[in-house]
Amino acid sequence: MFDIPLFPERASTIAGEVDALYFFLVGLTGFFSLLIAGLIVTFAIRFRRRHPDEVGAQVHGGMLLEIGWTAIPFLIVMVIFFWGAKVYLAMANPPDETLNIYVVGKQWMWKVQHATGQREINQLHVPVGRPVKLIMTSEDVIHNFYVPAFRVKADVIPGRFVQIWFEPTQPGTHRIFCAEYCGTEHSGMIGEVVVMEPTAYQTWLSGGAVEGSLASTGAKLFADLACNTCHRPDSRGRGPVLEGVFGHPVQLQDGSVVTADENYIRESIVQPAAKVTAGFQPVMPAFQGLVTEEQLLALVEYVKSLSSEEQALPVTRQP
Amino acid sequence: MAAEFPAHHYLNDGYGIRSWLLTRDHKRIALLYLAAITVFFFVGGAFAVLIRLDLATPPGDVVSDDTYNQLFTMHGVVMVFFFLIPAIPAILGNFLVPLMIGAKDLAFPKLNLLSWYIYMAGGLMGVYVLLTGSLDTGWTMYAPLSTRFSTTRVAPAALAVFVTGFSSILTALNFIVTIHRMRAPGLTWFKMPLFLWSTYATSLIVILGTPVVAITALLIFVERLFRFGFFDPALGGDPVLFQHLFWFYSHPAVYIMILPAMGVISELVAAFCRKPVFGYSFVAFSSLGIAVLGFLVWGHHMFVAGQSVYASLVFSMLSFLVAIPSAIKVFNWTATMYKGSVSWDTPMLYAIGFIGLFTIGGLTGLFLASIGLDVHVHDTYFIVAHFHYIMVGGTIMGYLGGLHYWWPKISGRLYPEGLSKLSAWIIFIGFNLTFFPQFILGYLGMPRRYHAYPPEFQVLNVLSSAGASILGFGYLLPMFYLAWSLRYGRPAGANPWGACGLEWQTTSPPPTENFAVTPTVTESPYHYPSPAVKHVA
To answer: Is residue B193 within 8 Å of residue B267, measured between CB atoms?
Structure first.
């Protein structure tokens, strides 16, 4: 009953690094708080007013002290800055080889879409010991995908993809919270990450009714929406060839160059006129509102699958 | 020696409702603000009590989801816009700025009264929102939740914020002009009390920052009513743009709330140690440093909001820099106590409480400035604890300390000493019990703005709720004994503390024109012994 929890479980590779910084700062806070409190209490007692007409010593300042208590805090905070930045950069840059899983937030649930076709709601099954990258978007308002045991979170923003990555270190179940206030049942938007041994994960993957991989769903949509009449594998269509596009630079009409990442593919479907490939006319209709976020995921995954060396380049980088 | 109550003073210079509602006396306007702001403080406090009551159990079974969301939203809106931002400037600042510089009034007395009416107009719009469906977007009003999805009164609430902002702007303008143009003969900038430096710095932030939040509120209003796509991606807008605009004001607003309290603390420490503030010019310039740097750190609210990695790194470094001027102040206050003549009067208890709590609040800010750690604690109870240490442990402690210090000047009477000391202790203990457990809850991962929570968080939440009940009780006491003292308190005399400062050289309460003869200043602001010390003895 009265065992008060003080510390969250530690279940990802980055968690230890975050905790080390935390303990350093707890120590620093403790030291300076006790120092200041100790001095104040000591002075308040030792120099307490003994006669009603007593006054303090007329001391006005001391340049050495001022320099000291400006410079020392400055040095300390710069150490913390670089330390915090180092941990953050590790969070922001996923390894090259990751298991990619799509997440869609909506009021008030998490929908998970695996590349192999499995779908889940408020549950996310991942294998232990393998870096996992989540590519996330929202159907409505801003949500935030947060797993305290992994020490990672990111706002899940409508109209774009954001990503986080983590590498679970032990099998078990951990809570997923929505950490950005999102309306009535914000506090009910809770799910769980199930971290499994690789063999158990393989068994899980092979079970469950699957309609085919996400890319194959995308391929079917690609045909249903008649994308394939213009985007043809040969270069005779009215739209650019999509084979080999993902992860590569694209020359635009206005002369600029963008990298074809998930966000670019997504934007080119919902608002194709925003960034038109050089040499093509802006003839494609906007699919904003005509395809759901989940259909978009399938289409993006299909376009990715058309590139021989599937290489996820930065979306909006998020730890 | 019993002090005499003056025969003529600003309180008996005219009776009746007109003499108050049409007054141009800065001291009466300060009291108009005191009345209104106190009402809002207890309204916002009542919301907090309901929140903590609801959080005593994991399922949150006192109120519904929607009611809970409205409670924390209105708690935030009321406390930030109608209490914390105006409290010290509009009450203590209004009362003290002319007195401290030896002037008869502010530069624009009618504008000052207009500020109060605008504040009341914004406040009544807030009350209208409250009574006709409330608001459930969080005080942050993030889009597109606020512009499309919420079914509550977003548009009138945005207008209320828009209107109230002008009250702050006009007051700040008044202070800046007054401090520039109306100082008594001999009162150079570096002979000004530090409260004026912090008021001046705050006024600069208000004038530069408030128009931005006003525009942002207006954009919310327009997008919600007329479907213009500024922020909603479905309309072609950018939801992160809203956060940039919002925090461009709302981070500096943190300094609008804390800088005046820092000014109060400088006055209290000097007066109750009877000693010049150590490193006067460092404390003065640190206020300006905070005002400038405070505008460059808003992005630390957005480390997990889709901001670019490089922007986050820059904002992180700047956020660490803004900690330095705050640290300088804390060290200088502490050094001021060394070899002082330290009294344990009630205002000094609040000052000591402030320094301790602000130190913890400031140091826990370092956790949040450091990005790798912020990612974990962002939007958890760690943040809630951190900013309450600054806003409640800092600003409210400073406000109450200042109110107790200048109350004899404002009312001309003394309050019960024992009871006021007891209240200060109750507030200090209640505060820590309420908010310290929230640091631990935050690191455990409990997100903020949760109506229901998993059972493993309960014990710490119960501690916090217990603390809140003590804190709430502690806040009620000053209201009663200060009101009591208005009628039954002993006359205070001109300078009950034996303090320096022009405000203590006139009668308590002061006459409407403040000084019979315009004072001439020759000494530094904390030149002890003050002429009155021997008098007190």
So the answer is: yes
Place of tokens 């956060």: B243
Which residue of A lies nearest to B58 if distances are taken between CA atoms? A187
What residue spans of B182-275 are helical by DSSP H? Answer: 194-226, 239-273
Whether the ω angle into residue B529 lies within 30 degrees of 0, i.e. cis, is yes
Chain A CB contacts of B335 under 8 Å are 62, 65
Rg of chain B over CA atoms, in angstroms?
Answer: 23
Preceding peptide of B509 cis, ω within 30°: yes
Q: What is the pLDDT of residue B278?
A: 95
Does residue A233 surpass a pLDDT of 90?
no
Task: Tell me which residue in B240, B308, B380 faces A179 most closely, judged by beta carbons.
Answer: B380
pLDDT at B528: 87
Task: Measure the CA–CA gap between A314 and A309, rounded to whole angstroms.
Answer: 15
Give the residue carrying structure tokens 């009162």. Answer: B187
Q: Looking at domain A214-317, which of 2.160.10.10, 1.10.760.10, 1.10.3720.10, 3.10.180.10 is its CATH number?
A: 1.10.760.10
Among B477, B354, B353, which residue's Cα sits nearest to residue B415?
B477
**Cβ <8 Å between A55 and B528:** yes
In chain A, residues under CATH classification 1.10.760.10 are 214-317
Give the chain B residue whose CA is nearest to the CA of A25.
B367
Q: What average pLDDT does this structure show over B119-129?
A: 96
The DSSP H or E segment spanning A168 is: none
CB A87 within 8 A of CB A14: yes
A308, with CB counted inside 10 A (0-12, 13-18, 19+), is exposed
- Find residues 56-85 of chain A whose CB sits inside 8 Å of chain B: 56-62, 65-66, 69-70, 73-74, 77-78, 80-81, 83-85
For testing contact with chain B, the best of A40, A93, A174 (most B CBs within 10 A): A40
Tell me how crowded residue B525 is: count the other CB atoms within 10 A of its CB.
Answer: 23
CB B178 within 8 A of CB B111: no
A31 part of contact set with chain B, CB < 8 Å: no
pLDDT, tens digit (0-9, with 9 covering 90-100), for B68-87? 999 999 999 999 999 999 99
Q: Are B443 and A7 within 8 A, CB to CB? A: yes
Q: Residue B203 corresponds to which tokens in the numbers above?
A: 């006024």
CA–CA separation, A177 vs A144, rounded Å? 8
Asked if B136 has any chain A CB less than 8 Å from its own CB, the reply is yes
ipTM of this predicted structure: 0.92
* B456 → closest Cβ in A5, A56, A61: A5
In this complex, do A36 and B330 lie within 8 Å of one another by their Cβ atoms? Answer: yes
Q: Supply the pTM of this predicted model.
A: 0.92
Q: Does A257 touch chain B (CB under 8 A)?
A: no
Q: b/e per residue, A137-152, with b = 16+ CB within 10 A?
A: bbbbbbbbbbbbbbbb
Count H helices and E strands in chain B, helices first: 18, 0
CA dist B269 and B528 (Å) reads 13
Domains assigned to chain B: 23-536 (1.20.210.10)
Contacts A–B by Cβ distance under 8 A:
315
Q: Which tokens sit at A167?
A: 């590498």
The terminus-to-terminus CA distance of chain B in angstroms comes to 9
Closest approach of A160 to chain B, Cα-based (Å): 9
How does pLDDT run across B337-389, given as a tens digit for each residue?
A: 999 999 999 999 999 999 999 999 999 999 999 999 999 999 999 999 999 99
CATH architecture of residue range(s) A99-206: Sandwich (2.60)
- The chain B residue lying nearest A139, using CA atoms, is B234
| CA–CA separation, A159 and B193 (whole Å) | 52
